[in-house]
Amino acid sequence: MSTQASSDADGFFAFLDLDVGAYVIKARKKGYKRYKQTTRLEEVEEKDIEIVMKKTRKRTRENILQ
After folding, report:
1. Could you identify which of 13, 32, 34, 35 might form a hypothetical disulfide with 7, taking C-beta atoms 3.0 to 4.6 angstroms apart as the criterion?
2. Cα–Cα distance measured from residue 20 to residue 7, given in angstroms and rounded to the nearest whole number
3. Containing domain of residue 1, as a range?
4. What is the total count of domains within the chain?
C-alpha cells in the first residue's frame, strides 16, 4: 500500500487512519537530497516525525573535472 501527502506552507503533513505496522517515510524536493526513514506504529499510537531536508551540492563542470 502506498499513501502520499503534501506538506502545507509551514511544512506540516499528516497521514490519518493508518493500520498497525511498519512504514517507510520518504520525502523529496527538487534541489534537496531525498529522505527515507522506517518507522513502526503500534495500536492507537500517534507519532511525530521531523524531516530535515539537506540541499544537494550543485555539481558544475569544474567540480566534475577536479
Report:
1. 13
2. 23
3. 1-66
4. 1
Which residue in the block uniquely carries the three cell numbers 516525525? 49
For residue 13, what are the contacts with CB-CB under 8 A and spacing of at least 6? Answer: 5, 6, 7
Q: Which residue has the cell 550543485?
A: 58
Query: C-alpha grid cell for residue 32?
Result: 534537496
pLDDT tens for residues 5-56?
999 999 899 998 899 999 999 999 999 999 999 999 999 889 999 999 999 9
- Distance, in Å, from the CA atom of 52 to the CA atom of 39, rounded to the nearest integer, reads 16
What's the CA gap between 53 and 32, in Å, rounded?
6
